[in-house]
Structure formats: C-alpha cells, structure tokens
Amino acid sequence: MKNSFLRLSTILLAALLISSCLAGRYMCNYSLKPKPHGLEDIERTRHKADSLMPGSTAWYDSLKVLGVLKDTTITGHRDFKVHACFVPAKDPATAGGTAIVVHGYSDNHIVFLYLVRMYRDEFNYNVLFPDLQYQGYSEGDAVQMGWHDRYDVEKWTEVAHEIFRDDFMVVHGVSMGGATVMMMSGDPQPYYVRAFIEDCGYSSVYDQFAHNLKQMFPLIPKGVLNSASLVCEKRYGWSFKEASSIRQVGLSTLPMLFIHGDADDFVPFSDLQRNYDAKTLGYKEMWVAPGAVHANSYAKYPQEYTRHVREFLEKVKAMD
Description:
Layout: H1 2-32, H2 42-52, H3 56-66, E1 70-75, E2 81-87, E3 98-102, H4 113-122, E4 126-130, H5 149-164, E5 169-174, H6 176-185, E6 193-199, H7 205-216, H8 224-236, H9 245-249, E7 256-261, H10 270-278, E8 284-289, H11 297-300, H12 302-318
Parallel strand pairs: 3-4, 3-5, 5-6, 6-7, 7-8
Antiparallel strand pairs: 1-2, 2-4
C-alpha cells in the first residue's frame, strides 16, 4: 500500500510538473509573442495613430515625401537589427532639444505620432522614435517588455546625439514605453540625457502579468507566472521579477514626470503612486488625467498634456 501510494504520488507530481512547464511555455509565448506583430501590424497601428490624433499618418507621410523624416537602423541588444525614424525640429537653427519617443506593447514607431508632432511642431524639438524589438521594422525573437529594450533606447540616445548635436535630451514613453523609460532611468546616463517622462508605465513585468492574468484568465493560478518567467529567463536572459520599474526608478537621480489616467484598468492606476514613491532622488512631478483610460491621457486632454510636458521641461532647463 505504501509503495503504491508513493508511485501514485510520484506520477501525480510528474504530471503536475509537466503541466506547469507546458503552461509556463504557453504563457511565455502568449505574453511575449503577440500576433500579428511587426510588419503585419503596421496598417492597424496607422489607424490607431489617427484615432489618437486625427491626421497623424498624413502628417508623417508628408514629411517622408519631403525627405525631412528619415529611417535608420543599428545593431541593438543581442545583435538584432533595430529601426528608428528621426526628424529635425521645425526650425532646426533654434531647436530646443531632442526627444526620444518610446512606444508601447504590440505597437511601433507610428502609434504615438501625436508625441512626435507635439515635440517637433509645438516645442521645436528634434525627435527620434524607434521600433522596439519584435515590433515595427525591428528584428527580435520576442517582446522584451522594456527590460532589454532599455539597452536599445540607450543606444538610440547616442545616435540622436550624433545626428542633432544638442545637449538637452528627454526620453518619453507610453505604456510599455513608459516602463522602458523607468527601467532605463536607473542606469548611468550621458550628460545630454536630462529628463524622463513616463506615461502609464507598469511597476514591474511580474506585477503587470499577474494583473492581466487575473483579468483574462481568472481560473489559472498565479503560480504559472513563475514557470513562464523561468522559460523567459532561459530563452531571453531575464526574469519577470527582475524587470522592475520600481527598482530602477529608485536608482534614478534625473528629473521625471509621471502621468497616468485614473480610469486605467489595464495598467492599474495604483502603479502611478508606487512608481512615484519609489523615486526618492532628484526632482519629480505627477499629473493625473481624470477619467482617462489606458494610454489615452493625451487624446482626452491634448492641451493639458502638452502644457504639463512643456512646463516640466522648462523647469528642468531652469535647474542649470
């Protein structure tokens, strides 16, 4: 009887481990390999860009035709080729600085054209806006959720500085781009990177996936994320808990503006306070967009959004 019980227990444990591994592989693929992506998804994201700010893609296309907006490619993290577009300020001779605009999950450089247009046409900034790995025109074997993307964005700051040669740069990201900005903020930066703006970024990859798991798969136990994280670590070299915005923000000394809509239920609104409180070094500001859902603060309040960003940058410049 004892031996039979042990055999049964061993079989059940093996089955549980196999199920956990299979579930972990599925969740890792589901989370980090969304379909469609990249080139297959460009048309959808063109429509999305226009829904956030009408006329965005026509503006983008006109600058392309004029030869003002250009493409470039570099070798990024893990030797993948990564793509970005760049455009000089409306009046290059009096440019106020350079902005790096970072897109979100399953998006690409086209989606947040409203920010590119805001920086170029209203602030007279040069702008570089990349495709993160596995998205847009960039190569990659999976979405990196900002954690490894930060290395590519750091390379893009160097490229932008070589192109535009100015000494004031802000890095501005939305959603996963906001998390990328926060994750980047804890790394040492060159002297010309002067400020960060994060819009509705998550506190950590693990916490974000746990929140989404509860929303989308309420019957699946949270423990499957640990298996998925192990798969991610083996395949891509990072774990879900390691990829922490909060931890990186705690190391950041540069000025940062935090933005979040209080009706956001995709990246919990509570993440705003957690991220903000984690920054204990250097200047910081917070703006809450009343009634705005996820990544919709600008679309709901374009004038207020623009004013808050402009005033923040003016304060940072006045700190010299």
